[in-house]
Amino acid sequence: MIFLLVADAARLARAGYVLAREGVLSLVSPAAAPPLARPLLRIARLIARKDAGSRRARFSAALSRLGPSYVKLGQFLATRPDVVGASVARDLEVLQDRMPPFGQDVAEATITDAFERPVRDVFPVFGPAVAAASIAEVHQAETVDPDGSRRMVAVKILRPGVGRRFASDMGTFRRIARFAEQNFAEARRLRLESVVDTLSRSVSMEMDLRLEAAAYAELAENTRDDPELHVPHVDWDRSSREVLTTEWIDGIKLSDKDAIIAAGHDPKEIARIVMQSFLRQAMRDGFFHADMHPGNLFVDAQGRLVVVDCGIMGRLGLKERRFLAEILYGFITRNWRRTAEVHFEAGYVPFHHSVDDFALAIRAIGEPIHSRTADQISMARLLALLLEVTALFDMQTRPELLLLQKTMVVVEGVARSLDPQLDMWRTAAPVVEDWIAGNLGPVGQLKRAGSGLGEMGHFAATLPGLLTRTARVMEQLDEATRDGLRLSPDSLDGIGRAEARRAFWGNMALWVIATALVGMWLG
Q1: What is the similarity comment for this entry (predicted)?
Q2: Per residue in 498-523, is it b (16+ CB within 10 Å) or e — as a string?
């Protein structure tokens, strides 16, 4: 345990040192920081590289050095120039698909090991890397079908050792979150440990490309009737844990707005497709692409939106989909009372609070942004207000909604880059209204009624066994408590030892972290 605490403190100290050394912390004004952080920011300026102030890629360089977990954070921030600033966002765009490749020899060796045959037997033509990210890199290759026809394919190959590095980072984040929850009430409200677990599970899918292949297939099946969206086909015979082969896409990245216009496509129409396609995936299917940054989105010659890199996907149950639809519909129609009631019905706001008071808080968020275009909305101010409201009403973080919330922000950022005048509410309205009509209207009521009858039949069939087990449990409980419920001396002694250990390790963790921080200051 003490070794892990020291290792975690060392990793945090290294992260702080790298950010300071690359000049990232110099971007923060000491006057705008909390008082306790101001001395650290002044020290950070002293240890920054002399050329850090003139380097365009200081933030991306720091995150690249820190590893894949930090790169993922940078990819998210790259879509929010209104939050981190235009210059920082341009810096972070490097992280999306222009990381250094790990080498042709390593890629070919991975393919040979995965399929137990030479590369030329799998791919007669295997080119150099065309894109490289934090988790994997992509090569263009060519296959030959049994009939002799040739096809261009995209071959994604995992970076060597990335799984171990990611697991190490997630372990550190998880232990820090656990320590914070044990010692700070605000951390418990935010459910930091659940947040880390949720993010860890989602990104860990990227470490097994067979799961990503399955995600491609499910997304393609769900959207097969959507003419505006295309999902590449998977070549299952040439895919494994470390290698994923898919249809090659000739398209224009959404980050290249000038090329989109030059090809004759309307950026405003593409922005609409991006927003509505995501909402259909989330609300209609309950299975959505959760990494929709510009590096993963293309426009093909037919004007369709093409999504790649299905390593991170999100799922929503019917309860969460209804919550999303009613919240969006409430904002669209400015029905703040109904929006507040949905939060209470979903259990997201404790019932000891007032619905009317919460509706007033929702109105304070919604009214300033309603009927305004995207370029008139400060997402930074909106997020700050949302955080204040969640704290005011004791709202705990909902891990099942984390990927949804993160992706909604990213999608809005992508759409905004294509159409700064985008009206988010008007764009979302058709998709939301269709879902409301099909699931909460008369048709939806009939569907739920039929489902309810089926559940009642299943319950009736299992009722005799359930009653038998209940009676057995009641008999055992009666025997155990007939003379009063007592704890043995060993149990009491064990409880005392457990509490003593918890206090010891909590105090020890504080000392280790404090020592590491002091060491970083003095270094």
Answers
A1: Belongs to the protein kinase superfamily. ADCK protein kinase family.
A2: eeeeeeeeeeebeebbeebeeebeee
489-518 confidence digits (pLDDT tens): 555 565 566 555 555 555 555 454 545 544
Please check whether residue 416 lies inside any domain of the structure.
yes
Q: Choosing from 91, 97, 169, 291, which is the catalytic residue?
A: 291
Identify the bridge partners of residue 152 per DSSP, sorted by sequence position. Answer: 142
- Whether residue 199 is found in the same domain as residue 279: no
User: What CA–CA distance (Å, rounded) separates 444 from 285?
Assistant: 15
Query: Are 343 and 423 within one domain?
Result: yes
Give this prediction's pTM.
Answer: 0.70
Phi, psi of 348 (to 5 degrees): -85, -20
Q: What is the pLDDT of residues 135-176, one digit of tens each?
A: 889 999 999 988 888 999 999 999 888 878 777 777 877 887
Residue closest to 276 by CA, chosen among 424, 409, 402, 405: 424
Q: For residue 483, which phi and psi values (nearest 5 degrees)?
A: -105, 20
Which domain, by its residues, includes 26?
A: 2-97
504 touches 2 (CB < 8 A) = no
Chain center to CA of 88: 21
If one counts the domains in the chain, the total is 3
